[in-house]
From TrEMBL:
<keyword id="KW-0238">DNA-binding</keyword>
<dbReference type="InterPro" id="IPR018062">
    <property type="entry name" value="HTH_AraC-typ_CS"/>
</dbReference>
<keyword id="KW-0812">Transmembrane</keyword>
<dbReference type="InterPro" id="IPR020449">
    <property type="entry name" value="Tscrpt_reg_AraC-type_HTH"/>
</dbReference>
<keyword id="KW-0472">Membrane</keyword>
<dbReference type="Pfam" id="PF12833">
    <property type="entry name" value="HTH_18"/>
</dbReference>
<protein>
    <submittedName>
        <fullName>Helix-turn-helix domain-containing protein</fullName>
    </submittedName>
</protein>
<dbReference type="InterPro" id="IPR041522">
    <property type="entry name" value="CdaR_GGDEF"/>
</dbReference>
<keyword id="KW-0804">Transcription</keyword>
<feature type="domain" description="HTH araC/xylS-type">
    <location>
        <begin position="631"/>
        <end position="729"/>
    </location>
</feature>
<keyword id="KW-0805">Transcription regulation</keyword>
<dbReference type="Pfam" id="PF17853">
    <property type="entry name" value="GGDEF_2"/>
</dbReference>
<keyword id="KW-1133">Transmembrane helix</keyword>
<feature type="transmembrane region" description="Helical">
    <location>
        <begin position="267"/>
        <end position="285"/>
    </location>
</feature>
<dbReference type="InterPro" id="IPR018060">
    <property type="entry name" value="HTH_AraC"/>
</dbReference>
<dbReference type="InterPro" id="IPR009057">
    <property type="entry name" value="Homeodomain-like_sf"/>
</dbReference>
Length: 740
């Protein structure tokens, strides 16, 4: 009996553990694939930048310093914005040149051989994974590289964007999962292995053959028992459709069944004791034996009920209690499943909207009683505007209110489901099509737009908030729901161009081919006014910059990319003017930029939070620099007053235009340059007349007056006496009167 219970329970536990492992692997695979896809999309956005194309088309890129500087800015922005990126390179194979934000323009030997070998095959896009030198099969150090081709506008061969991703991005995903005693591995087609470093159930010698078997398998899912080192291991493997990586969990079979083994042994010992007790009871205690048999019959009849009149326990009572506990646990499990059904249903809808389709999803959709009878599906995604600053409680209340409004409006016209997604958006899945009970037009466009407009208007009138709604295209079949959801989310991104509080239909927004011209002229005007610390002009130019982008661009990513480049150029200008300057912002500007969903919000943020600290800092530095510059000039005058000094000469001394020097000199001293020179030299003349016997003609020559009469005339104008009269008064002790 114990062996049978053990075999039955262990088989079911293995199945349940296998299903739990598959779900864990799917979550890990999805999160890692999302990181890789996000990196690929951001790399593609920068690959279409005309600055990079011009750099790759230049016959002599080292001579075009302006284009080279803008190229470095783009690469530096990528290296800063994209999370977990170690390095970004721009590679010109025809010139054997590599551009790096850290090293500038260097020889191609800075790239590893395996990267150059991959580029030699002229790929459009390729992922490379390379294990760094180590004797261990599961070492922690790897290099993941994305190579993206950039086509040029002329006959010049294409170039390549090369992005190195830090593998710690994967380990953060591992650490978020509750793996317990399981070991998690990622096996790539090239044979490299990423380990979670928590446990090692396989030795390195066993790993190599075992993991090679997993990598060579074409199966999308694997669940089997493997023998390794005298222990049985339960292995789950799931292959990614995106890059062919195998996600593997390994757990000891004996660890899984450890508690069952104890139950088996305990039951076996108990059965032996029962047999022995029964033999004794047969010969000695017939009445006790009768009561034990009666208790067993009563247990079978009442499924664990206690027989009347029982006052003493025997061995069968323990067996009955054991089965009673199993029955109670089963009831509790059924109750937990019933209570968790809404959450399980919402999680499945989330997977249906965001994960690749699997054939078993239809069966699960029927199990959760989802509306799937009509042929077409359309997804709407709703974003609550201007929730920044609201409490968590208020945001939840608004979201639940909008969910109820959406359910009410959709329910009057079609079958649908509404959930709150993990990313904070509200998603509505509408099932419609050829059905006599459906009031929704099969063509859908106008009706879907009207449903969305009704949701937007009711939310605004009842809740006094605005919502933005993105609508994906209508598709047939469950396998296209994810596509419609992605399109709805992409439609929401066009808030950057269209603004918030509106309905955005992807079919009306997404262009077939996007053309984009970055407003470099306005950028340079902003940089110029930044150097002049002119905030008023900067605010006006930011409005012109945003308007130029909305006029030129057809794709929402170009808007965000343009603002990111403007911020990068402004920060670089700040660094050039003040290399050792303090940190002016207490948060990452690029992260905040990605949080803002309209160009109006971005412009307001730039006007109120980004540029005022920079302008204030540069203005303060400008005042300090002006004072320091003029003090340097005055020190030079005081030391060389007896030489020929001119305003252009001193302006050149401080590397400043003459007109600007003249303006700053008068602002700092209150006198023009010529007036200051006359006043200082006359003061020197007065000191020489008081303290020396130098002839007046020699004093005039010393102070660079070619004509002594001019010197006498200027001295008399300044002091009211000629130099001779002044010296005579000094000798008679009348200096005080003269000075008064």
């Amino acid at each position: 009996m114990g062996t049978a219970a053990y075999l039955t329970a262990s088989g079911k536990i293995i199945e349940e553990i296998g299903e739990a492992n598959r779900q864990t692997l799917q979550q890990i695979q999805q999160r890692i694939d999302e990181k890789l896809i996000t990196l690929e999309n951001m790399t593609l956005q920068n690959a279409v930048n005309p600055t990079l194309s011009r750099f790759l088309s230049a016959s002599d890129p080292q001579q075009d310093t302006e284009n080279f500087g803008m190229t470095l800015t783009i690469l530096n922005a990528m290296q800063v914005i994209i999370e977990d990126v170690d390095a970004v390179y721009l590679y010109r194979p025809d010139k054997k040149l590599v551009v790096s934000p850290n090293s500038g323009m260097v020889d191609e030997t800075v790239l590893p051989d395996y990267v150059r070998q991959a580029v030699s095959t002229h790929p459009t896009k390729v992922w490379l994974d390379h294990k760094l030198e180590s004797v261990l099969i599961r070492d922690d150090f790897h290099q993941i590289t994305l190579v993206r081709r950039i086509n040029t506008s002329n006959e010049t061969p294409p170039g390549y964007l090369i992005v190195n991703l830090n593998d710690t991005a994967f380990f953060r995903v591992f650490s978020d999962m509750q793996l317990g005693a399981r070991e998690l591995l990622i096996v790539t087609p090239s044979g490299n292995v990423f380990s979670d470093r928590r446990s090692s159930l396989l030795s390195d010698e066993e790993s190599e053959a075992f993991l090679r078997k997993v990598a060579d398998s074409d199966a999308e899912k694997q669940l089997r028992i493997e023998n390794a080192g005298g222990d049985s291991l339960a292995v789950n493997a799931l292959k990614s459709n995106y890059n062919g990586w195998n996600y593997v969990t390994v757990i000891s079979y004996s660890e899984l069944t450890r508690h069952l083994q104890k139950i088996k042994q305990t039951t076996f010992i108990l059965c032996l004791a029962l047999i022995l007790t029964s033999i004794i009871a047969t010969g000695v205690l017939s009445k006790r034996w009768y009561r034990a048999i009666h208790s067993l019959v009563d247990l079978i009849r009442h499924r664990g009920g206690v027989a009347e009149g029982r006052t003493h326990k025997n061995e069968f009572v323990y067996i009955r209690n054991y089965f009673e506990s199993l029955h109670q646990n089963n009831q509790q499990l059924e109750k937990q499943i019933e209570d968790s059904m809404p959450l399980l249903r919402a999680n499945f809808i989330q997977k249906l909207l965001t994960e690749p389709y699997h054939p078993d999803m239809r069966e699960r959709a029927e199990y959760y009683n989802l509306p799937i009878n009509r042929p077409k599906f359309t997804v709407m995604c709703i974003d609550l505007d201007n929730m920044r600053g609201q409490t968590e409680r208020d945001v939840n209340l608004f979201q639940y209110a909008v969910i109820n409004i959406t359910k009410e409006i959709i329910g009057g016209q079609a079958k649908g489901l509404v959930i709150r997604m993990h990313n904070g958006h509200i998603a509505a899945l509408i099932n419609h099509g050829e059905d006599e009970r459906s009031t929704l037009d099969p063509k859908l466009s106008a009706n879907l737009f009207q449903i969305a407009e009704d949701i937007r208007k009711v939310a605004e009138s009842l809740l006094h908030i605005t919502v933005t709604i993105g609508i994906g295209r209508s598709y047939e079949g469950l396998d296209r729901i994810r596509v419609s959801c992605l399109e709805a989310l992409e439609a929401l991104e066009y808030q950057l161009i269209e603004g918030s509080g509106c309905v955005l239909f992807i079919e009306q927004l997404k262009p077939d081919a996007a053309s984009f011209s970055y407003p470099y002229e306005i950028e340079q005007q902003i940089v110029t006014n930044l150097k002049l610390a002119n905030m008023v002009n900067i605010e006006a130019l930011l409005d012109d910059f945003a308007q130029a982008i909305r006029t030129e661009t057809l794709h929402h990513e170009h808007v965000r990319q343009s603002f990111a480049q403007l911020i990068a150029v402004s920060l670089r200008t700040l660094f050039e003017l003040h290399p050792s300057g303090a940190q002016l912002h207490d948060y990452n500007l690029y992260y905040r930029l990605n949080e803002l969903n309209t160009s109006a919000k971005i412009v307001n943020w730039l006007k109120t939070e980004v540029y005022p600290p920079i302008v204030g800092h540069l203005s303060s530095r400008m005042v300090q620099r002006t004072h320091s510059t003029i003090q340097k000039v005055l020190q030079h005058i005081h030391q060389h007053y007896d030489t020929d000094l001119s305003q252009p000469q001193l302006a050149a001394l401080v590397s400043m235009p003459v007109s600007q020097f003249s303006h700053l000199f008068k602002g700092e001293t209150g006198m023009t340059f010529s007036d200051y020179m006359i006043a200082f030299r006359m003061e020197k003349a007065r000191q020489l007349l008081e303290t020396t016997d130098v002839k007046i003609v020699d004093i005039a020559e010393m102070l660079r007056y070619n004509n002594s009469q001019n010197f006498i005339r200027v001295f008399k104008k300044m002091h009211g006496l000629t130099p001779g009269e002044y010296r005579l008064r000094c000798t008679k002790g009348q200096l005080t009167v003269v000075q008064q």
